[in-house]
Structure formats: C-alpha cells, structure tokens
Amino acid sequence: MQKILQALKILSDEIRLKIVSLLAENELCVCELMEALRMSQSRISNHLRILKNTGIIEGKREGKWIFYSLARGTMDKVLWEIVQAIVNKIDEEEYLTREKILIEQLISRRGEPGHCPLPH
C-alpha cells in the first residue's frame, strides 16, 4: 500500500504526469523531453530521477545518452494499472497535443548531427 501511496504522490506533479504520458508512447532522451516541455536539463533530470526511484520509469544507456521509457516489465501490477489509467485519460483529453507533435519531429531527426542518436 505504501508504494502505491508514494507513487500517487509522485504522479500528482504536473510535470511528472507529462513525462510519464510522453514516455508511454516513446522511448525518449533528456534533450527531447527538455525541448518538448521547454524546461532545463536539471529540472527534467530531477523529475526523471524521482520517477526512476519509484520504479515508474527506467533508463537504457546508449553511449553518452540515456533513453527513458516506462518500466513496463518491472512495475508493480497495481501501479501499472494506475499509470495506464492516468495516461489513457490524458490521451483522451488531448492535453499534450503540442508536445506530442514536437516529440514526433524530434524523433524523426534522431541520428542527425546535433540530435539524439538512434536507440538500439
């Protein structure tokens, strides 16, 4: 029960909700989240650290880059159902339309000079 309460507290932050919703659709690096959410690297990294410590997201290193995604395979079943319900509601209400369009543009430029590499 404590783990679920802790996760709900963490997910009550608007920025972390946005990050979780964006990561539900794509594996993303810090720089892509920075650009989509118009925030500094330190702020995004702090939110990612909190989400990772709770077991909601995980990171995969690709050289000097870390790509983040939802921790689908290791997340507690009840927590996974809560995250899915929240993400589905955010998608249904189309809260992140601008951010999702921007993410798609950023993903299409992966591998180009000055952009994130293609994840393996």
UniProtKB/TrEMBL annotation:
Keyword tRNA-binding: no
Keywords noted in UniProt: DNA-binding, Transcription, Transcription regulation
GO molecular function: DNA binding; DNA-binding transcription factor activity
Statement: the UniProt record of this protein carries the keyword Transcription: yes
One Pfam family, short name: HTH_5
Signal peptide: none
Domain HTH arsR-type: 1-94
Residue ranges that the Swiss-Prot or TrEMBL entry lists as coiled coil: none
UniProt protein name: ArsR family transcriptional regulator
Provenance organism: Aerophobetes bacterium
